[in-house]
Amino acid sequence: MIRIYALVPLLSLFLSGCLDRLDSEPRNTLWSLEGQLPSAVAAGKPRPPIKLEYRLTAYEQNWFDLNVSALGTAEVRRYVLSTDSSQKGRKDLLVERSNPLREGSRLEFFSAERLDRLILDVEYQSGMNTRRHTFSIPVNQVDHTPLKTCDEPPCYLDAELN
Amino acid sequence: MNSSTGSGGSSSGSGASSGSSSSSGESVLRLLISYEDIDSNCITQCRLDYANSGYKPVRFAEVQILDQSTGQVVDTESPLFTDAEGKLVVNLPVGQSVRVRVIASSKVNSDRGSWDISIFDNQGSATLADYDLYSVLSQEVDAVAGDIDLDLQLPSGWTGEGYSEPRLSAPFAILDSMIASVEYFAQGEYRIDLPGLKVFWSIANRPDQSSIGTSFYSDGNLWILGDENVDTDEFDDHILVHEWSHFLLDALSRDDSMGGDHGFDDLLDARVAYSEGLATALACLVLRDEVYRDTSGPSQNSGFDFNCEQSAGLDVPSGWFSESAVIGLVYDVFDEGADESDRDDLYLSITQMQEILFQNMVAQSKGSAATIFSFLAASLEVASAFAAEVMDLANAKNIGAGLNTVDVLGTNESNGAQDYKNPQGNETQYSLPLYTELTVNAEPVDLCQDTLHGQPNKISNRRLLFFRIEDQGTYKLTVNAKNESEDAKEQDPDFLVYSASSLVFAGESSVRDKEEAEIGFDPGSFWMEVYDFRLLDSDQIGVSCQSIALGSI
Questions:
Q1: Any bridge partners for residue B305, and if so which?
Q2: Distance of CA B493 to the CA centre of its chain
Q3: Which CATH class is domain B17-252?
Q4: Please, what CATH class does the domain formed by A28-138 belong to?
Q5: pLDDT of residue A89
Q6: Contact state of B302 with A121 under an 8 Å Cβ cutoff
Q7: Numbered ranges of CATH 2.60.120.380 in chain B
Q8: 3-state secondary structure B446-467
Q9: Rounded percentage of chain A residues whose pLDDT exceeds 90
Q10: Residue ranges of chain B that CATH labels 2.60.40.10
Q11: Is B304 within 8 Å of A49 when comparing Cβ atoms?
Q12: N or C end of chain A, less CB within 10 A?
């Protein structure tokens, strides 16, 4: 137990050092992508009372930053960014930011794994209530083609009921 | 509603039959099929309330009996369907071993109406294709003499930490919401006959561009999110009914929305505001639950809500351009008003709703689009005795402000969203009149659009016109950009011409600063929209103006 407690400040120190280095050293941009949350082209159910713009930038040595700005009137209180690797499932917290700036907040993070998508949880003020909404940011575009289709409909999925 | 299938019959030959009588050599299989439904609430925070889940009957769903040895479907005299209690009785020859396949599909034709709804696994893809129907197979059942009771419960797969087990109930929850929606409308005096509806749901349906983007309706198909820990909609009943309502309006009423991103605080194109607001109001009415809820997030433990009654004085826009205003107005017109939060005494019946949406609006002039004004005009016709109450409610939402009647064109509307400034502090100058008349062989009319409140489906993005053709013939429709200043930007003006909800002509060339076409018209009334594609395709706020003319050739 002592060893685990001792690891926490060491890990914090390491991450802090990494972030300092990220800020102080010139970085080479590998690629970037930008978009709106929810997707600007989406048609369908009503959008939550928040609307965001983002720009995700990838740098050398597996460093990234996500710059998020709020477009709607609702006040954003907190961002929590995590991964969704197709191999691991959604487990890893990457970074979180409380009291972000409306005009843009940078969420910097390190990820050595191949990113499938990022999950951004947003806590915001809605009238008298605090509400949360979760957005999905695809990093590697998935092929829209379905893996399997039915040759002679109807075909049945036939899940087994125990 | 009574199902016309799955009743009566007796055994014949070696096949199975549905019914309740048994004789020597026969086994009576009594099925009771239910699915686990998860309620949502927003008491502290919006969430799916797994602690208060319960089982509901799988109603009017298709069932097959499979021979265990061959795997083939056992012949029955007619397709088998569960009844309103999720029950089905099947006679089987003694000694036969079978399995029961419950299919997420429902086809009913009764005295009150008909529907044909099926739920497919699209595997996260937004591509239209032939997909597998969701179905569940029971364990083997040996047909012994006498009665066999088989209780099939389809669980949600939630185990407390997540969906660790297959999410068997989700397709059946979606199916049941759609059936309940039809049943609501079938309470009226007129039959409800709906075309086939395909619903695509998958645990891989994500809310981003790599998958379906969101839950939505398009051209006879519904796409529903199923992304655990991010956004699932299979138990968000209001969303299911909202999207189903788009299908209903497309099939039986008028819906001229171009779709696109929209929210409760947006200032929208009149057609979008009406379509989206009506769909949400119908969701609250069908479910008899005035709080629209959309859950999402880790463990489905987040989300947001919106009260259709809006008794809490929400800070949302008010006017024909607001889906929130449309929600409140439509909900107030039809809600039973029995609860203390209701602010009105008006209650139009479901039959009157049928007449407004499916008869009067459909019979309206083909020279106008479906907006809250065409809804109101139809409502005033159907419920003329309550015209004052209807207009009071409309006025309370700043629709038809100060008027005691409205027409389909929104003539004399004075609320042009002047009270709403964009983040730069500007308000639109080009929202009214809602329609401008175009007269054959008359002087051109000048119109402008802007993107002050966003694009491409927001207020003032597209301007509406109407015209009447008296004589069959070919006519020249011209839209010329008006670049009055030297620094005016290049335009790509486009136009679309409609007769009711049918597209008659699309003038969408990329010719600079001009769009023109020679179009053959039969006599009748038409409406059209004019917009600058460059303006709508740009991230920059701007204004475009054109001169529009229609002449006979």
A1: B293
A2: 31
A3: mainly beta
A4: mainly beta
A5: 53
A6: yes
A7: 433-553
A8: EEEEECCCCCCCECCCCEEEEE
A9: 42
A10: 17-252
A11: yes
A12: N
